[in-house]
Design a protein that fits this description.
The chain is mainly alpha-helical and about 625 residues long. It has 31 helices and six strands. It folds into five domains: about 120 residues, no CATH class; about 130 residues; about 100 residues, Arc Repressor Mutant, subunit A; about 110 residues, no CATH class; about 70 residues, no CATH class. The strands form two sheets. Strands 1-3-2 form a three-stranded antiparallel sheet. The chain has a three-stranded antiparallel sheet with strand order 4-6-5. A hairpin with a 2-residue loop joins strand 2 and strand 3. The longest helix has 21 residues.
Length: about 625
């Protein structure tokens, strides 16, 4: 069951809340107790972090001493029964083992509620703490109770309320008003690639060989049927040293000397993280103050059990879950970076790989604008804290195998810094693609499923040219081609390559390039007899094929096709930069106007409007007139 919800997950939250309350109702008699529990859950969704299972004493204080006095209309005499209802609900969560790992203990919550009964009663009766809506309606109730229903006063009050902004009215009425998530800008306008069938053998092999998941199995073997824990819930010091040695932590192997004095498992954050993950995954369990391996773990599907635990960890916050209890940290920064995990992964799903530096800069911008920093936090310190926290996030995701971090070779033509050490990059792994689709969907990213066009004519796929990115078209084309004979693939490619649409011609040659080499060459040679002749010639030359025709007119048409895809105003600067780099540009313009395709004139018109060299721009405008006359006198085929 999913217990963490985004602000717009109203339907999913409602289903989870109602199901949980149905279970709770079985253990209590009073309907009011269940209603009060519902109030708790509604607060967590609308005003808290959306995690229905993680509760701390700070949450309790905020609800009883700040939110309820401001928003909840009820007499102070009902405060004590409400606290009792809360205590019953938290006892239920503890009994069902539903309190999240980041929660205060049930005993601490119960004792804290006891302490807050009297302050809660006082706050509920203090009119100075009432919010606007509560004050307004309390005043009306008092007026009616006193027998003075004043229609004009009532209307004036409602007019005053209605004059407020939508946001102010929402706050007044207790409706959730959240600022837009700044991380959403990271993925604005991205086109999510479709999910493709995963190779189970590859993913299973990764899980079996990944150091982190091997470590989980090592922990299971070590704890076996039970290892006693300390009063703080940690392994004993002797067991901590022993399992650290088994896991290969430096200084804890046979004959090695620790680099520091070990006082508890908290002193090895990665070990604590692995122990938490093992419990979260259901690989180990806590019972009777002992940690033991679960029998059910070995019976589960290896991909399913790991995927479920990784996604649960992503929901709870990778940074916060990976920190040891003793770690000094800026919790606000941790939460802010954790809040961007889904959007960072969605971006990587869409583009495959991305430079680390601009991602880190985005995190810094969000941190500087959305967080409150103390007077002693200098700009340099803020930058260090945010960027180091972001770096920790990538480290956790990499340890889980969801992403890979690496450097481009300095000889890579796509390296933005070819003279430096290479670009620091991060990319989604095959394992990440295998497990993240449901997680991204819950976070608002609609990941399409590939393969819907299998068995249909290739023309159906090409209807999406210009709408889908080439990467997505390539994925769909690969699945489409898997079930067909080579001759059928070549025939249908030739059919779409003979289109009058320059976008189709370009796409046909590009997809042909992505076929196995021998099939690719056959398909390209078949295209020599189509309107994609120029694209086919260019590809065959690139592949070093023999006996390639010399047809300058066809190559010119292919070039015009390519440039015509850059006529949008957003792309014109790049187009002009490319055109300006052509040797003998006057000769190029003279050849373009002779191309018997309407989009050749469109290309000349853009050059005429946008080229910075007035002489070249005038030549292009003159060529537009010649091109129109040329089309008028020579009918198109």
């Amino acid at each position: 069951m999913e217990w963490i919800f985004e602000p717009d997950d109203d339907e999913a939250f409602g289903e989870a809340r109602d199901g949980l309350l149905d279970r709770f109702m079985e253990s209590v008699d009073a309907e009011r107790t269940v209603n009060n529990a519902s109030l708790l859950l509604d607060w967590k969704f609308n005003y808290g972090d959306g995690d229905l299972m993680t509760w701390t004493t700070a949450h309790i204080s905020e609800i009883l001493l700040e939110w309820a006095p401001r928003k909840v209309s009820m007499p102070a005499s009902s405060a004590r029964p409400m606290v009792a209802s809360f205590q019953a609900f938290f006892a239920f969560l503890a009994k069902e083992n539903l309190l999240g790992l980041g929660s205060s203990s049930w005993k601490a919550i119960d004792a804290h509620l006891d302490k807050l009964v009297k302050p809660f009663e006082e706050a509920m009766g203090d009119r100075s703490k009432f919010g606007m809506a509560k004050s307004l309606f309390a005043g009306v109730a008092n007026d009616f109770a006193a027998g003075i229903p004043d229609e004009k006063s009532m209307q004036a009050m409602m007019d005053s309320f209605n004059s407020l902004s939508f946001e102010q009215r929402s706050r007044t009425l207790g409706l959730p008003v959240r600022p837009p998530n700044p991380w959403l800008e990271l993925t604005e306008g991205v086109d999510m690639l479709p999910a493709i069938p995963v190779d189970r053998d590859v993913v299973t092999s990764f899980i079996d060989s990944a150091p982190f998941f091997i470590g989980i199995e090592t922990i299971r073997r070590f704890v076996g049927t039970g290892r006693k824990l300390t009063a703080k819930g940690n392994l004993t010091l002797a067991d901590t040293k022993a399992v650290a040695g088994l896991l290969g932590f430096t200084g804890f192997g046979p004959g090695e000397t620790p680099r520091f004095e070990l006082r508890s498992a908290d002193d090895i954050p990665l070990l604590q993280f692995m122990l938490r993950f093992a419990r979260l995954a259901g690989a180990t369990k806590l019972a009777n103050s002992a940690l033991s391996a679960t029998a059910a773990w070995a019976k589960k599907d290896p991909i399913e059990r790991i995927a479920k635990a990784v996604i649960e960890l992503l929901e709870r916050g990778p940074i916060q879950m990976s920190l040891s209890d003793k770690a000094w940290t800026n919790h606000a920064v941790d939460e802010m970076i954790d809040g961007g995990v889904a959007h960072i992964l969605a971006l990587l799903w869409a583009v495959g790989e991305f430079p680390v530096e601009p991602l880190a800069e985005s995190a810094l911008d969000i941190g500087l604008t959305s967080l409150r920093w103390g007077p002693g936090a200098t700009a340099a310190m803020q930058k260090i804290v945010v960027k180091s926290t972001f770096d920790r996030l990538l480290g956790v995701l990499a340890s889980l195998g969801v992403v890979a971090r690496y450097r481009h070779d300095r000889d890579d033509p796509d390296d933005p810094d070819p003279d430096g050490e290479g670009a620091d990059m991060v990319a989604l792994t095959e394992f990440g693609r295998a497990i993240l689709k449901p997680y991204l969907k819950r976070r608002g990213y609609d990941v399409p499923v590939a393969g819907d066009l299998v068995g249909k004519p290739l023309r159906d796929l090409f209807q999406h040219v210009g709408e889908w990115r080439v990467d997505r078209l390539s994925i769909e084309f690969g699945l489409w081609a898997e079930s067909l004979a080579e001759s059928e693939i070549i025939d249908q490619l030739a059919g779409v390559a003979d289109s009058s649409d320059p976008g189709w011609r370009l796409c046909a040659s590009e997809l042909a390039r992505r076929l196995p080499p021998d099939v690719s060459e056959q398909a390209l040679r078949r295209m020599l007899d189509t309107k994609s002749r120029g694209q086919a010639i260019g590809a065959l030359i690139e592949f070093g094929a023999a006996d390639v025709p010399d047809d300058r007119a066809a190559l010119m048409l292919a070039g015009v096709d390519l440039f015509s895809q850059m006529l949008h105003p957003d792309d014109v600067d790049e187009l002009i930069a490319l055109i300006s780099g052509i040797d003998e540009i006057e000769h190029f313009i003279d050849e373009v106007w002779r191309v018997r395709e309407p989009h050749a004139g469109d290309l000349l018109a853009v050059i005429g409007r946008s080229h910075p060299d007035k002489r070249i721009a005038k030549l292009a405008r003159t060529a537009v007139v010649r091109h129109r006359s040329h089309l008028a006198n020579i009918p198109l085929a």
